[in-house]
Amino acid sequence: MPKISSVFVGVALSLGLLAPTMAQGKPDGENAQVRVQEYPGSVLGIPMWVAIEKGFCKGYNLRCSTVPLASGPLGLQTLAAGSVEATFASNEVNLMAASRGNEILLVVGHTPNNYYTLNVRSDYPLPSRAKGYPEVMKDLKGSKMGVTARGSGIEIITRALLQSAGMSGDDVTYVAVGSPATSYPAMLAKQIDGTVSFEPFNTLCLAQKTCVELVAPGKGEGPADLLAMNGGFASFAMRKNFVQSNPKVVDAFIAAVRDAIAWAKDPGNFDELVGITRKRVSLGDIPDGDKVLIQLVKGQTESLGSGIKRDSIDATSNFLMKNKLSEKPVPSATIVYERAPRP
After folding, report:
1. Domain count, the chain
2. CATH number, position 128
């Protein structure tokens, strides 16, 4: 009998009959289509660009593609309509949507720490600038502040910064100007006085000396309840019913994103990563544009992480409730996928 068993195992291995057992542990996406939100003109797309171009999606039997959607709320609306399978946004946007009945789950991290920066046009009067945050916020009263869309994460953060300085969130006028590809030109045209934004906005500002940086939560500046959100700041989200119905697809997507982020953070891949980004992001004719792009890619890559810190999600819920931006608490246990990676 032992000899027969050995022969059987040998034949089974040669025919691939034991492949499912041997491959156990590697997620199989079942050749599913996964369309993922992308912010036009922003390096935030690096994880998905890498997952697609370097074959991580394909390696987990997924057909990944990106869909340009310029704001978190627009992405979530598109997700609810079933036109994409995954969105990416800062988690205050995700939790606020969940509190209003949008049934989503956070499945894998993107950027653990806050990546927003408050920038104001260099010619905008700032008599309190030397005093720093929070006093300098009072100089913004009556200004026009850009947001990607009304109700977006950028508006939420702007309101929180104003309120933390003893002001009203309505002490400024909000102007929807889209992602950095359109918000930066809007600032140059003086359609807005400033904005809380994400890369490449801040790097373009500093490179061209067109604006000044007032508050950078990613550098530890801002109110304590906002900084407590670090560790689980921005994540990929999927519809709850999709996750429940397609666990293999979800696990494969998590694995592809995790591997893509690990590849992007490997210093040995940096030059190739810049090449991948260069195909998708143009900085126009700004001086030393390629050097600026390299700086952008370096900064974005350093900020990436696939883990989601559950305490940070709870802190985000507390932040929203404190600032009266959420209709009810959204505990991490109800919105983070049980198999989502931890830091």
Report:
1. 2
2. 3.40.190.10
